[in-house]
Amino acid sequence: MISEQAKQQIDTWVAKYPAGCQSSAVMEALKIVQAENDGSLTSELIQAVADYLEMPVISVHEVATFYENYNHKPVGKYVIRFCHNISCMLNGADDLISYLETKTGVKTGEVSEDGLVSVKKVECLGACVGAPMFQIGDQYYENLTQQKIDEILDGLRSEVK
Ligand code: FES
Is 137 within the bounds of a domain? Predict the structure, then answer.
């Protein structure tokens, strides 16, 4: 269920902690396993991570369901994590989320018909000075406007052509 390549990646994180503290790598392990399974986690994958790290499955489940960066249903190739916390909200996030939903044809929590994007509303991503903002992968996009969103979406579409 967890590929050998993913196990090697997890092992590099486990090695950063003292012997017997492999559970400290659980967040990275979930991230790695999620990435190799089309961006979402199933109960079976959570169980596999628990087995691999020799942790109670409930502990892994708690981590996987507490943090917003883990997905529990299918997502698009690109997950747009739009901050709707106070700074972003005061700078127009709600209107821009509506605009993004219209442009992509998906409501938050859904996947576009072409599988390209899904949109999630998330809490503060620590980039309030650049509000309104969203995150795709490891990249932050700040000071968003409708025009910037159009350009970003065009960029994503051209990446998959
Ligand atoms: S409120 Fe949006 S990044 Fe902090």
Answer: yes
Q: 89 in ligand 1 pocket by Cβ < 6 Å? A: no
Tell me, yes or no, whether 85 and 146 share the same domain: yes
Which residues are CB-neighbours of 113 under 8 A, at least 6 positions away? 105
| Ligand 1 close to Cβ of residue 88 (< 6 A) | yes
Give the distance (Å) from ligand 1 centre to CA of residue 84: 7
Q: pLDDT of 95-128, one tens digit each?
A: 999 999 999 999 998 999 889 999 999 999 999 9
The span from the CA of 16 to the CA of 54, in Å, is 17
The pTM of this model reads: 0.84
Same-domain status, 25 and 82: no
Q: Is the torsion defined by CA of 30, 35, 37, 40 positive or negative?
A: positive
Q: pLDDT tens digit string along 14-58?
A: 999 999 999 999 999 999 999 999 999 999 999 999 999 999 999
Position 15 scores a pLDDT of 98
